[in-house]
Structure formats: structure tokens, C-alpha cells
Amino acid sequence: MEVVVNAATSVDGKLSTRERRQVRISGEGDFDRVDRLRAAADAVLVGVGTVLADDPHLGVKSEDRRVERLRNGRPANPARVVADSRARTPPDATLLDDDADTYLLVSAAAPERRRDSLREAGATIVEAGEDRVDLTAALDELEADGVARLLAEGGGELIYSLFDAGLVDELSVFVGSLVIGGREAPTLVDGEGFVADFPALDLVDVDRVDDGVVLHYRPT
Ligand SMILES: NC(=O)c1ccc[n+]([C@@H]2O[C@H](COP(=O)([O-])OP(=O)(O)OC[C@H]3O[C@@H](n4cnc5c(N)ncnc54)[C@H](OP(=O)(O)O)[C@@H]3O)[C@@H](O)[C@H]2O)c1
Ligand SMILES: Nc1nc(=O)c(N)c(NC[C@H](O)[C@H](O)[C@H](O)COP(=O)(O)O)[nH]1
């Protein structure tokens, strides 16, 4: 499986505010680039923190791109995937609508009754890990289900775990020309953080988009 991570940060590396309120960092050009990434993916992954903060849809916005996917025998929209150890995703979350399949990656700690209500809401439950989702095992199950290209759109806790598990094949970051600040504000890579053996990246390309730049990396 090819795992592509994409996110947008402020100049100071923040994903959103200290209140975790969604900030529109990308402009039209960059959101269109993200839409292309979604259209090229079999599934789009976020952490439950992003679902609770943003209630995202994660579908392909461009009708032309959806038609193109259908013409190629693919579903109009990529599947949505949430890393959600305890099944905290609300059953009325937008990404549980009928526009695409939705997988919930849970751990053994996820209560049965929550799993049931999310299954009723249309989710496919994938269990991997005891207390927290084991991303390597969960992604293996998704791959067995036909997911060859996965786009991960954050947030910082999830992106840290993807790097920590050595699962990242590509990283693209839109850096917008604004400052968010705040020691509590989420950043591109949060989690425990690395104190040594820092994941090294090759800067393969830089593009000016909207009022910012897109940095394209591949792990060395
Ligand atoms: N600017 C952007 O591009 C962008 C993109 C995405 C999000 N955001 C912003 O970022 C914020 C959300 O980021 P976040 O870091 O708080 O949340 P997140 O990374 O979206 O979700 C983190 C949660 O995922 C669950 N999870 C399950 N398995 C995991 C694993 N193996 N590793 C890590 N997490 C796992 C954990 O909750 P459980 O243990 O309960 O499962 C964890 O608390 C929001 O403010 C959102 O607006 C911005
Ligand atoms: N590329 C990007 N630029 C931003 O300025 C921003 N705030 C996000 N945030 C990512 C987060 O995952 C959002 O929740 C989804 O971008 C919402 O996706 P929908 O439009 O609901 O499909 N992503």
C-alpha cells in the first residue's frame, strides 16, 4: 500500500488553533490539489480527533473527477477511514453518509454497543490493537480489502503514529502565509515526538500555490 500524507500548516507549523477549531489555511488552488489527491486515492484516513473537531466529509468535490473515477470502474468517492480506538465517532457524523464506504479502525477497547450503533450507521468495523489502533495491522486489512493507495489527512497525533510505524511513503505540506501560534495548538506531527532516529526526508519538489508553498517530501 502507498501511504500519502497531506496537510496544511501555518508558517509556524500549526494545523489549527489551540481550541482545535478548524482554520481554512489552504486557498482554492491548494484545496483543488487536495481534491486531486483524493480522486487518486482508494481511501482517505483521518484520526477521530479530526472527526470530532471538523466533522469532515472527505469526498471528491469535483464532479468531473468523480465521473472520471466511475468511467475507470472505481467508486465515485474514495472510502473514508477513521482511526478511532474506542469508537467515539458520532453515528450521525457526515463521513457516515451514503456518498462512500466508511471504515472505522478500532481497538479491542471499543465498546460493543458503540460498534453496533456505528455498524447500523453504515460503517465497516476493523479491529486491530489492544488499547490503541495498531495502524500497521489495520492498514494490512485495508490492503487485503483492495486499498492500494491511502491518503492520510491528519491530524498531528495520527501523522506522528504513521511516521513512528514507518508507514509514510510521501508527505506534502501546504504552508500558508499566516501565524496561528499557541503551545497547545496541534502541529503537523504531535504524539510523543522523536528524541533520536528522526525520520529523514528528501525534499523532492517545491510549488508556489495560492499565497503559500507546497513542500513535497519522500522518506530517504
Ligand atoms: N490543517 C490541516 O491540514 C488539518 C488536517 C487534519 C486535522 N486538522 C486539525 O487538527 C486537529 C485534530 O488533530 P489531532 O491531532 O487532535 O487528532 P487526530 O490526529 O485527527 O486524531 C487523534 C486521535 O486518533 C485516535 N487514534 C487511534 N489510533 C491512533 C494511533 N495509532 N495513533 C494516533 N492516534 C490514534 C486517538 O484517539 P483514540 O485513542 O480515542 O482512538 C487520537 O487521540 C483539529 O483541530 C483539526 O481541525 C488540521
Ligand atoms: N488541506 C487542508 N487545508 C486546510 O486549510 C485545512 N483546514 C485542512 N483540514 C483537513 C481536515 O481533514 C478537514 O477536516 C477536511 O479538509 C475537511 O474535508 P471536507 O471539506 O469536509 O471534505 N486541510
From TrEMBL:
It comes from the Archaea. One of its GO terms (biological process) is riboflavin biosynthetic process. It is an enzyme of class 1 (oxidoreductase). Pathway: Cofactor biosynthesis; riboflavin biosynthesis. Residues 3-215 form the Bacterial bifunctional deaminase-reductase C-terminal domain. GO terms for molecular function: oxidoreductase activity. Keywords: NADP, Oxidoreductase, Riboflavin biosynthesis. Its EC number is 1.1.1.302. It catalyses: 2,5-diamino-6-(1-D-ribitylamino)pyrimidin-4(3H)-one 5'-phosphate + NADP(+) = 2,5-diamino-6-(1-D-ribosylamino)pyrimidin-4(3H)-one 5'-phosphate + NADPH + H(+); 2,5-diamino-6-(1-D-ribitylamino)pyrimidin-4(3H)-one 5'-phosphate + NAD(+) = 2,5-diamino-6-(1-D-ribosylamino)pyrimidin-4(3H)-one 5'-phosphate + NADH + H(+). Coiled coil: none annotated. Gene3D superfamilies: Dihydrofolate Reductase, subunit A. Residues 70-89 are annotated as: Disordered. InterPro entries: DHFR-like_dom_sf (IPR024072), Rib_reduct_arc (IPR006401), RibD_C (IPR011549), RibDG_C (IPR002734), Riboflavin_Biosynth_HTPR (IPR050765). Transmembrane segments: none annotated. PANTHER family: 2,5-DIAMINO-6-RIBOSYLAMINO-4(3H)-PYRIMIDINONE 5'-PHOSPHATE REDUCTASE, DIHYDROFOLATE REDUCTASE FAMILY PROTEIN (AFU_ORTHOLOGUE AFUA_8G06820). Belongs to the HTP reductase family. Homodimer. This is 2,5-diamino-6-(ribosylamino)-4(3H)-pyrimidinone 5'-phosphate reductase. It comes from Haloplanus litoreus.
